[in-house]
Amino acid sequence: MMEPSLLNGYGASLVAFTLFGLLHSVGAQEPFKRGLARCTSRYFVDHFWRLIYCGLSYWALYYGVATIHWARNSAHDVWLVAYPEWLWQSLIVLHLGSIALLYAAFLQSDYLEFLGLKQAWRGLQGIWGKVPPEAEERPALFGSQRLEVSGVYGWVRHPMMVAGWIFLLTSGPSLNNIVYCAMYTTYMFVGGYFEERRMLRIFDDEYRQYQRRVGAFFPRFFRAPEP
Question: How far is CA 193 from CA 4, 8, 122, 190, in A?
Fold first, then answer.
């Protein structure tokens, strides 16, 4: 067990990560986007919210949570154990594999669309009058009109979350990394739960069939029997 006094310095990290989790989960939900559309416009939400949402999420995680976590606890960056050489080499392979998995999922989801850059560009073209709204082509967007079930999404339903988890899990065994990994793991399951509910509302039976075939965070080697 870790001494309570040792963990006191992580209170700010926990609060910051909780706020990030709320921003990241709530900002992706349709009720929030409908409310935002009433305050702004449907056009704004359809074309610009995704880019703003990704920017805010990135800033909150890497310049908010991470800065607070490591800056306030720099004394806990020391490794707690020394890995044997064979284990360290194995973890390096897994660490690099997590980056490859994240990159593959990012590409498969169409990273320009995932980041909201395509939507924003179409929105700007509409504002500039180059593409009238009624003539605008609206491709099926990843995660809201288009469900990916092949490639890395045929292994696990949330490959980006899994890649981040493996990356943290195979980082150095300092107290900072362990605590951060614990917070991330908690959010992975809590945030994943709400994301699953969202996907069921959007895709219904199609997503239920996907759930039966593919595990959320771990590959499913034995398919669940059809009902």
Answer: 30, 29, 32, 5
